[in-house]
Design goal:
3-stranded antiparallel β-sheet, 54% helix
Length: 150
């Protein structure tokens, strides 16, 4: 029975919320993060992916190849790191642990939503070892002016 499958339940729950909210971005980000977790690819959001020390409430770094968030001590001159703002880390943690109701109460700026999307997209591409075609399609739709879609 597919109803007992956690991935199926996650998909069902996400589709219900996509249908009922115009703010689909955070629903999609929550789905991506929870799906990664269900499949055993949970990015590190509480402790440093490098040294495993608890992440402090400061700006950190992100590296998909290392496994997620990286503390300032491990950042140093490491290659492939991108800045991870404290607010992005907080939002990722909320998406990971929060309910849809909790997430719906949070107002997310365009810049913060973009930062989280970029980091999760990089992580998904790393795990899959390829580009996600549907993500490219959605990006194309975003760039198409309203009313010109055929």
């Amino acid at each position: 029975r597919s109803e007992g499958n956690p991935v199926f339940r996650l998909l069902q729950e996400s589709l219900r919320h996509l249908d009922s909210t115009p703010e689909y971005e955070m629903v999609v980000r929550r789905f991506e993060l929870r799906l990664l977790s269900e499949l055993g690819y949970q990015p590190s959001l509480v402790e440093c992916a490098g040294c495993h020390a608890r992440l402090e409430p400061v700006d950190n770094s992100w590296n998909a190849a290392v496994g997620g968030a990286v503390c300032p001590r491990c950042s140093g001159d490491a290659l492939g790191l991108t800045p991870l703002s404290l607010n992005a880390l907080k939002l990722l943690r909320l998406l990971d642990r929060g309910s849809f109701a909790e997430i719906a109460r949070v107002r997310v700026s365009g810049a913060l939503a973009s930062e989280v999307e970029t980091h999760l997209g990089e992580y998904v591409r790393y795990v899959l070892e390829r580009e996600v075609r549907s993500a490219r399609f959605v990006a194309t739709l975003r760039q198409t002016p309203a009313g010109t879609q055929t």
